[in-house]
Amino acid sequence: MRTAFVTEVWQIYVLIFLLNACSAGFTPVFQATIPDILEDEEQYTRALSLSRLAYDLENLLSPMVAAALLMAMSFDVLFVLNALAFVISASLVISVMLPEPQPLEEIPGVWRRVSHGIRIYLKHLAFAVCWR
User: Fold this and answer.
1) What burial class does residue 33 get, using C-beta atoms within 10 Å of its C-beta: 0-12 exposed, 13-18 middle, 19+ buried?
2) Which has more pLDDT, 53 or 103?
3) φ and ψ at 5, to 5 degrees?
4) DSSP of 57-114, one letter per residue?
5) In angstroms, rounded to a whole number, what is the distance separating the alpha carbons of residues 92 and 96?
6) How far is CA 24 from CA 17, 28, 61, 104, 117, in A?
């Protein structure tokens, strides 16, 4: 099997790992950014619900759309379209101006800061699960 930039099977595994690692890092950062943008709890809840809906629909519809497009065009054309969509998506993400995060009270020590961050993450995660 030989495709663009990939000549061995192990390279596919590395690419899958990198893609999933980036996705695993992006999702909590994205969800933690929503409260900085939307301070109203009702808007925050709605935005979190809509983002989760979009994420789930993308997971369901993307394979179906890809399969349908593969019936009409070659893999190479679909790969180029996917790369173009990625570049457009990345440029839109980079173009967004986020508000400055609200300063927290100073928490001394590395481990206390890490545990504080984990507690905030779990609190937001529990909130997201409850409103799912």
Assistant:
1) middle
2) 53
3) 70, -5
4) HHHHHHHHHHHHHHHHS-HHHHHHHHHHHHHHHHHHHHH--PPPPPPPPP--SHHHHH
5) 7
6) 10, 7, 20, 25, 16
Token reading at 132: 């799912």
Q: Residue 129 above 60 pLDDT?
A: no
Q: Where do we find the tokens 């596919």?
A: 12
Residue type (1 letter), 112: R
Number of domains making up the chain: 1
Q: Which domain holds residue 26?
A: 9-99+107-130
Q: Judge contact between 98 and 36, C-beta under 8 A.
A: yes
- Give the global pTM: 0.55
Residue 52 lies in a domain: yes
